[in-house]
């Protein structure tokens, strides 16, 4: 089926507009990070830097200065919290999703789990703060991992269930007829088929935990547990703000999730292409 010239023009124009709308803030963030303070505060604004300044990136990865120490500590905390919460959520969500999809677990219970996502985060702050405060667990990375795991689990379970639902049941039944246990079938039959879904769930869960700001702001108070979103807000505090430093932190903070998204995108595309052909 051939598109008309107008339809092709409209389609490519919409794709170009979407690309510009998506990339323009990122391009401006990079330009801000390499612009001098005079370029960023001049009127009218200089959209292109008169001189390229990469010194901010050097300061942010240098432990011998305050900015670098704060950034690298926050980066470590973000990697630990987002990675740990994603791992725990996947370990629990995969068998839970299989139970909901194949073992007749109550869907009402799943909807109750999903309802917790719809509640504003501020409704959970007071009870969680009292609980963790009573346990002496405030300002700890472990606390954020627990909170993020609880936050990600309903989403990860729902996403995995919707993907397990479309997997062929006949393959599992053949394994059961050969005497395989449920655990063996899940591990050796279902998981290989669901790898693209696991990759997508892992990527999206990591991004949600990586960008979370509210709980990290409430439950942390110093560099021992602060994550990158909170650290970026700290960089913007004060009477004199270097917008180039904030932009540099933002650029560096986007690298880990961007690299993860690129890697998983290739894996997901190859997995779906391989699974789309039936023998």
From TrEMBL:
Family matches, as PROSITE patterns:
ABC_TM1
Membrane-spanning ranges: 79-100, 107-129, 141-160, 189-210, 243-264
The yes or no answer to whether the keyword Membrane is present is yes
| Primary location class | membrane
What is one Gene Ontology biological process annotated in the Swiss-Prot or TrEMBL record? transmembrane transport
What the record says about family reads: Belongs to the binding-protein-dependent transport system permease family. MalFG subfamily.
This chain's protein is named Maltose/maltodextrin transport system permease protein MalG
Give the source species.
Answer: Parasedimentitalea huanghaiensis
């Amino acid at each position: 089926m051939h598109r008309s010239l107008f339809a092709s023009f409209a389609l490519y124009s919409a794709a170009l507009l979407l690309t510009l709308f998506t990339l323009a803030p990122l391009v401006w963030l990079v330009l801000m990070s390499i612009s001098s303070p005079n370029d960023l505060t001049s009127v009218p604004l200089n959209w292109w830097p008169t001189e390229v300044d990469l010194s901010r990136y050097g300061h942010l990865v240098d432990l011998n200065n305050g900015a670098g120490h704060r950034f690298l500590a926050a980066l470590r905390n973000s990697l630990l919290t987002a990675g740990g919460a994603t791992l725990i959520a996947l370990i629990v969500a995969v068998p839970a999703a299989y139970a909901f999809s194949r073992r007749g677990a109550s869907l009402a219970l799943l909807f109750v789990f999903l309802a917790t996502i719809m509640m504003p985060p501020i409704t959970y702050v007071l009870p969680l703060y009292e609980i963790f405060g009573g346990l002496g667990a405030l300002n700890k990375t472990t606390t954020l991992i627990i909170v993020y795991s609880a936050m990600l689990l309903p989403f990860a379970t729902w996403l995995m269930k919707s993907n397990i639902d479309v997997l062929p049941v006949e393959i599992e039944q053949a394994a059961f007829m050969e005497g395989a246990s449920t655990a063996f079938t899940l591990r050796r039959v279902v998981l290989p088929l669901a790898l693209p879904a696991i990759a997508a769930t892992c990527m999206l869960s990591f991004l949600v935990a990586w960008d979370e700001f509210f709980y990290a702001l409430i439950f942390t108070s110093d560099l021992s547990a602060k994550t990158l979103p909170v650290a970026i807000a700290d960089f913007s505090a004060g009477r004199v703000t270097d917008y180039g430093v904030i932009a540099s932190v933002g650029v560096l903070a986007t690298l880990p999730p961007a690299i993860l998204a690129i890697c998983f995108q290739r894996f997901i595309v190859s997995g779906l292409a391989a699974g789309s052909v039936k023998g």
